[in-house]
Here is the input.
Amino acid sequence: MRPEIRNNYSTQEVADIYHSPLLSLVYQAATVHRQFHNANEVQKCTLLSVKTGGCPEDCAYCPQAARYHTDVKNHGLLPKETVLDAAQKAKASGSSRFCMGAAWREVRDNRDFDKVLDMVHDINDLGLEVCCTLGMVTEEQAQKLSDAGVYAYNHNIDTSEENYSNIISTRNFDDRLRTLENVRKTKMTVCSGGIVGLGETDEDRIHMLQTLANMEKHPESVPINALVAVEGTPLENQKPVDTWTMVRMIASARILMPESMVRLSAGRLSMSEEAQAMCFMAGANSIFTGEKLLTTPNPEYDDDMKMFDTLGLVAMPSSKEAASV
Ligand code: SAM
Ligand code: DTB
Ligand code: SF4
Here is the structure.
C-alpha cells in the first residue's frame, strides 16, 4: 500500500529514516519510488545562467558572489536570441525543463525583469517547462512570473536553519521561506532543496530535510546538490562529500516526499557511474544535462546518454507533452 503524504515529521522520525542501515534505507526508498513513479524514467533539465556573477550576496559556496575572486566571467542579462537558441538546443537534446538562473539577490521591478518575462513566453512556446531561479521575489513578482508562464521557481533553503548563518550572512532563513510562500500563492510549482558538503553535520541535514518535508505542500521538486568547491570561494578547500551521504540524503528525501521529483543536481562530475546509479536506486529521478551547470562543468552529454543506456533509463516526457497526448 502507498504510504500517506505527511507534513508533520518529528526530528526523531527524520533522523530514524536518515540513519537507518544503508541498504534498508535504499530498499525502502526504492519501494516508495516505484509506488509513485516510473523508476526507469529520469527527467532531463537544462540550466542556463542568463545573468552571471557580480552578486551582492555572500553565499560561501557560490562562485558568483562579487566579493570572492573566482574565474567566473561576469555578464549582464543575455539577449533574448541567445537564450532562445539555448532553449531550442535543450529541447532538441531531449530536455523537458529549461531553467534560467540569475545572480541576483532579489528580483527588481526593472527592464531586466520585463525581459525575463518576455523570454519566458517564448520558451514556453517551445513546449518546455520553464523554471526560473532569480533570487528573492515578492508576491506580486511571483504572480507576474506565474502569469508569464513560469512552471517552476527554484529557491533552495540550502542548509538547516541552524547552519544558515555560517554559510550566508546577507539574508536569513526566513527570507528564503518568505519567497517560497510567495511562490506557493501562485500557480507555479516550487523547486527547493539544498547542498551537502558545506561542512554541515548529519543533524543539519536532518533538519533541512525536515523543513522541506514539513512544508504545507511539499516542493514539487527537491534538488540535492553536492558542493562544487570553487577556487576563490570560502569553501574552496572543503573535503568532497562521500557518496553514501548523497545516497542517504536522496533516499530520505524520496521517503519523506514520495510524490516529489528528487534531483541529483550539482556535483555529478565527481561521481562515478556506480555512485550515480545508487542515487537513482535511492529515488533520484531528475538530473541536469549539458556540459555546464550555471558556471561550473557538468558531465558531457554523450557520457550521460551512455549512462542512461547502460542503466536502461529513459528521458521523462515533459508534463506539457504528457498533457497534450
Ligand atoms: N541567486 C539565486 C539564488 O541564490 O536563489 C539563484 C541562483 S543560485 C546560483 C541557485 C542555487 O545554486 C543556490 O541556492 C545553491 O543551492 C546552488 N549552488 C550555487 N553554487 C553552488 C555550488 N558551488 N555547489 C553546489 N550548489 C551550488
Ligand atoms: C540547483 O539546486 N542547482 C542548480 C540549480 N538549482 C539552479 C545550480 C547549481 C549551481 C552549481 C554551481 C555553478 O555551476 O555555478
Ligand atoms: Fe548570489 Fe545566488 Fe550565488 Fe548567493 S547563490 S551569491 S544569491 S547567485
User: Anything to note?
Assistant: The mean pLDDT is 97. The longest strand covers residues 41-51. Strands lie at 41-51, 97-102, 129-133, 152-154, 189-191, 194-196, 221-226, 261-264, 286-288, 314-315.
